[in-house]
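ok, trying the design again with the full structure, not the truncated one.
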């Protein structure tokens, strides 16, 4: 993978992680509540909100976010997709 692709992937991961946190805060959810929605533990959610994708994370997190908050999945990976 070249540097340009790596940088793009990292930007999308960063945007996703920030969007997870923003959605949780915007909807007044606790970390425990959001973790339950996503089907993950609170520790994994904390990692995601810190910009770290846990080793055992799967695409199901994206699907659950998309369905619960009625957002197209690709918008979760964009800085301006949720405005």
């Amino acid at each position: 993978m070249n540097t340009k692709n790596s940088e793009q992937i990292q930007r999308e991961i960063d945007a996703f992680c920030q969007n997870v946190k923003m959605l949780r805060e915007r909807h007044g959810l606790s970390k425990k509540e959001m973790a339950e929605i996503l089907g993950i533990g609170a520790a994994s959610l904390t990692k995601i909100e810190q910009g770290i994708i846990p080793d055992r994370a799967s695409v199901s997190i994206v699907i659950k976010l998309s369905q619960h908050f009625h957002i197209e999945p690709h918008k979760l990976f964009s800085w301006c997709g949720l405005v």
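Keeping the full-length input from now on. Residues 3-77 form a domain with the 434 Repressor (Amino-terminal Domain) fold (CATH 1.10.260.40).
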